[in-house]
Amino acid sequence: MTTIEHWIGGKPASGASDRLAPVWNPATGEVQAQVRLASTADVDAAVQSAQAAFASWSGQSLANRARVMFRLRDLVERHELELAKIVAAEHGKVVDDARGEIVRGREVIEFACGIASALKGGFSADVSSGVDSYDFREPIGVCAGITPFNFPVMVPMWMHPIAIATGNAFVLKPSERDPSASLFVAQLYADAGLPEGVFNVVNGDKAAVDALLDHPDVAAVSFVGSTPIARYIHERATATGKRVQALGGAKNHAVVMPDANLDWAATQLTAAAFGSAGQRCMAISVAVAVGDAADELVPLLKAKAEAVKVGAGDDPAAEMGPVVTSASLDRVTGLIASGVTQGAEPVVDGRGLQIEGHEGGFFVGPTVLDRVTADMDVYRDEVFGPVLAVVRAATLEEAIDLINANPYGNGTAIFTFDGGAVRTFERGVQVGMIGVNVPIPVPTAHYSFGGWKDSLFGSSHIHGHEGVRFYTRAKVVTARWPKHTESQAAQLNFPTSS
Length: 498
Hints:
This protein is an alpha/beta fold. It folds into 2 domains: 3-248 and 455-477, Aldehyde Dehydrogenase, Chain A, domain 1, CATH 3.40.605.10; 252-436, Aldehyde Dehydrogenase, Chain A, domain 2. It is built from 17 helices and 23 strands. A 7-stranded mixed β-sheet has the order 15-16-17-14-13-19-20, with helices on both faces.
């Protein structure tokens, strides 16, 4: 059986640990490989490799760093299908969906290609007599990324291209459920000419995470995952003086107003709820139907959910694959059962789905539950599966109150043609990312991604210009150039501009 190793110092590395974990094929329910789980010594080796590389990489010109990013961008595009098949095999999402996340990750590399512009400082002449001021930003050192299983290419690419382009070295700890994509990207970096040690990958579990959080040579930690782990990482890493951006869970609502194009809205909600089997932090898991919108919307959702083709990730006809593990399958089906028991109406029930030839796979079909209320477990919990809960609200104000009462604040959307309703919604919801007739409002790379409330710990959103600021620190210079013959008596009062 194949053993998936680490990537340290520009090449594969077995490391010191003999602990292994299974890597499943979610479509068959079979173990297809095993991954080596890093020890504290392995993490230290990766960090030390990064620290050594940082000394020279941080001194590289912006032009040279950008050229590496241009070459990486080209390689990612040329190997897109190959990389997508790796994702589909270990995650379970269909190949076309995997290609979509690679494209969105590549957009961040494209942003990093323009790093010279993003790092451009300011200059103010004559802030005082004969005095100029200017500022610039410098890299901070070794940065770590701890990333989830659901986007094994895109989410790490939210981090490492910007960290590396700004002059840092990087250690990535991907999910042990689907680690192979990160090693493929590591090889692409090497092919792009990135010096050895600037990008490293350590596979592992909590032991590897804690080793990164505690390591004295790690300057910053970026994380995407569940809220409990985001809170833990933020608390532990900030306690050791590290910068932390920790993005947590979500419960994303989409409000559907009565004046909306309901067929359009139902199509968009179907894609947003069931794409990638609902295993997206920006998936729409709650549709809030305002007024009498639900009476027409729910039958449309039923028809569209039943039309979704479910199959293995490598099936060209499939639109949705399995969930990632048997534990995920049990959790999702358990929450569906709990919703029905607590009074939700199962419009479409995806439990018990069997795919011919893949009877052991971790499949659950698209599920639509109507008349869900805020006290039900299926509403309160982040399902992270293909389940769309329909909640009915009398007014837009009631819908906004429902969203704001939820502890998460990642993304939300509204479907309407009413500009006044949109304005009220945009300013009323306590959520970081908002879509208007767009169900998954993931910003493009030159903006930044991040939520509010329990969806974000730390003050910095991820990628874009906030990412540049997170991975760098500022210096401000105040300069005067007196003449060689100039003299002046000492003035002990606090200096002011004149």
